[in-house]
Amino acid sequence: MAAVVLVNVLVHHFVVRWDMTNDRRYSIAPTTRSLIQSLDAPLQVTILLDGELNAGFQRLQRATIEMVEDLEAIGYWQLGIEYRVSAEEVPKGLSPTVIHERTHKGQTAQTTVYPYALITYKGKTAVVELLRNNRGLSGEENLNHSIENLEFAFVEAIHSLARESVEKIAFLEGHGELSEAEVFDLSQALSHYYQIDRGTLGNETGVLDEYRAVIIADPQLPFSEKDKYILDQYLMQGGRILWVVNGVRFSEQTLSENGMTPVIPLELNISDMLFRYGVRINPALVQDLQCLPMPVDVSDNPQQPNWQPMPWTYAPLLLTSQASPITRNIMQVSATMASCIDFVGGEDGLQKTALLATSSNSKLTGTPATVDLSLFNGTESEFQYAFVPVAASIEGVFPSLYAHLLPPEDLQLHAPLRKTSEPTKQIVVAAGSTIRNEWQQGQPLPLGYDRYTQTQFGNRDFMVNAVLYLTDDTGWMALRQKQITLRLLNDQRAREERITAQVVSIIMPLTILAIIGIAVIGIRKKRYTKQR
After folding, report:
1. What angle do CA 471, 280, 392 make, to 5 degrees?
2. Handedness of CA 203, 429, 460, 45 (dihedral sign)
3. DSSP string, 402-426
4. Of the four listed, 29, 208, 254, 397, which is most buried by Cβ atoms within 10 Å?
5. What does the DSSP 8-state code read for residue 479?
6. Is the dihedral angle over the CA atoms 141, 144, 146, 149 positive or is it negative?
7. Going by C-beta distance under 8 Å and a sequence separation of 6 or more, which residues neighbour residue 345?
8. What is the pTM of this model?
9. Are 268 and 216 in contact (CB under 8 A)?
10. β 124-129/116-121 pair status
């Protein structure tokens, strides 16, 4: 009796699950286990996804509850994780999701849900977004991606609550980079994770040592040798750099006023650095048939304009790689006047991964050239390039540009020259527009929002993930690569064969039981008849 009671107590308090699935959908990563076991105070989790849910959102709710139960099982002896499912206490600022569905009878049903969870730790609360909504994917695919992302979403929130100090990142200035207003939306998003500073480099080599990452946002002026040396040695010390750099120079104002602009190579004096690090930004423009539209007046009468959307091939919608946690399951990234990159260096031991690329119908325009708004459509045969890289990550041990060069004069050296780096990471994006937000009526628009089509693209997610990836040393960003195979029912066949399935599922078990019962009775009758 004591053993039975003990087993029941243990079963009540512990969640035991053997994951026998091929995609390991019920396994918790070691990174998550380490984070949960490092906590020293209870967690309270409120799952707001509740109410009259359809089958898809019930699946998401069930997966969320299972995730919380798994976390509770990991940290049971260290802390208590209390959770409840309730949509009664929704904080201000959380937007609901409206589900529009059509029943099999043709009727339309509408349900409002809050696909969020709240995590409270030591008096601080973080919001977990449970639903990933990628434009262009079906509802089932978006829900499946949301379930894949659950572990990362919870770990990201708990990580932000449990950190004892705030890391610092810096936006570089002094080379015509984007202003604070032009990167306002990204700065707001990153401020949830980091302290953000802005500034120039000066004359001291150790000026960047306290920063986990440096962002170089669309510079327009050349870098001095002193600046290059400081950046190079920062990288050698294990620093991380996000390069968002155009390969060409053009004037948006001239293009807007005159309908055309000359395009020439953008000389920033960093080509030798990037080449040394394994990548080259080409002074060429990318054109793509998969692009944003632009309103154009096609009327012959100036008094009666007729604005029609026309494809603007210089504004490509870049595809995102599913092979990297930075870009997995995020929407296309919008860009204008983008360049392309090449990997160089051969067998240099660096890991190079393309993050953003054009579609299978692309074209490269060399510079110098002229971009004319009146020339929208080229023949499809001209777009012969496919999947041209526009952004990439490079990881490993980098050689210094100054390994065989003297340091620049008038530079205060705080440490001896390092010729090779600590293992570190860089990301290169050959399109400055991917990081710039627009303004409308004195208010900043979300990064990646297109005013004409009123569509939100994946620019913000891409940039935030890029910085998180650069500063991640524990591997928790790899949780975004979790993949669950989506196995969908054929709705039409399910409706057509519904009666058959119901009959089979009800009649067949009863028939089998009846046959077994008759057989048992027959065997018993035959056995006992012989005995008599």
Report:
1. 35
2. negative
3. TTTSPPPTT-B-SSPPPSBPPSEEE
4. 208
5. G
6. negative
7. 275, 278
8. 0.84
9. no
10. antiparallel
Give the distance from CA 381 to its chain's centroid: 33
Question: What is the residue whose two structure tokens read 């929704």?
Answer: 90
- The kind and range of the H/E element at 459 are helix 459-471
Q: Which two tokens stand for residue 351?
A: 């890991």
Q: Which residues contact 358 (CB under 8 A, 6 or more apart)?
A: 286, 288, 290, 316, 318, 319, 340, 385, 386, 387, 388, 390
Pairing of strands 248-249, 260-265: antiparallel
What the block records as the tokens of 317 is 């919608």
